[in-house]
Amino acid sequence: MAKIKRICTLLLRLIAFSSTLAAAIVMATSHESGSFFTISYEAKYTDTPAFKYFVAVNSIVSIYGFVILFLPSENKLWQLVVATDVVFTMLVSSSISAALAVAQVGKKGNSHAGWLPICGQVPKYCDQITGSLAAAFIALITYAILLLYSIHTILHPLQLQKT
Q1: In a 3-state reduction of DSSP, which class is residue 31?
Q2: Which of 85, 81, 65 is nearest to 73 (CA)?
Q3: Strand, helix or coil at 44?
Q4: What's the CA gap between 86 and 101, in Å, rounded?
Q5: Which of 37, 43, 147, 153 is most buried (CB neighbours < 10 A)?
Q6: C-alpha to C-alpha distance for 154 and 161, rounded to whole angstroms
Q7: If you write DSSP's letter for every residue of 100-146 in order, what string do you get?
Q8: CA 103 to CA 34: how far, in whole Å?
């Protein structure tokens, strides 16, 4: 039974690692050029601080996920994994929130501020942003499941035994 739990945890951690890595790579490679009449422009992730934050967080979390994959289950550092899982789950959540807010403005614009939507002019760029956000959401859900499982594992010995 313990071996099955370890394999499931390893599989979830592999999904979380690959999702954060994919989110960082897809966002970091998102760029597209366009033109409006005679004015040419380029849309890239480095133009927006929220997207830079998204790439930085997902890169850090994917490095963490990679390191955790090779941490032996007998190691004392596993006691810190729950705390670091909480921190990195919160970081992924905040980076998704920031990037999603900017992506929404890019898609719909903001008539009150006079910002026009850009996704009509650079659809490939917007599609890459959407794909990156989807991968990050998968990572967030996976880390939430891992966090719930870790909390359950820690609290399980405290439950009263039925007599």
Answers
A1: strand
A2: 81
A3: strand
A4: 23
A5: 43
A6: 15
A7: HHHHHHHHH-BTTTTBPP-TTT-HHHHHHHHHHHHHHHHHHHHHHHH
A8: 18
- The pTM for the full model equals 0.87
Q: CA-CA distance, 84 to 141, in Å (whole number)? A: 16
Six-digit token string for 35: 């033109």
Residues in the chain, how many?
A: 163
Residue with tokens 């807010």, as numbered in its chain: 101
CA separation for the pair 23, 32 (Å, rounded): 18
Split the chain (163 residues) into runs of 10 and give each run's mean pLDDT.
83 96 95 78 88 97 93 78 91 97 90 83 91 97 92 66 46
Q: Which residue has the tokens 């490679």?
A: 29
* Predicted local distance difference test score (pLDDT) of residue 88: 95
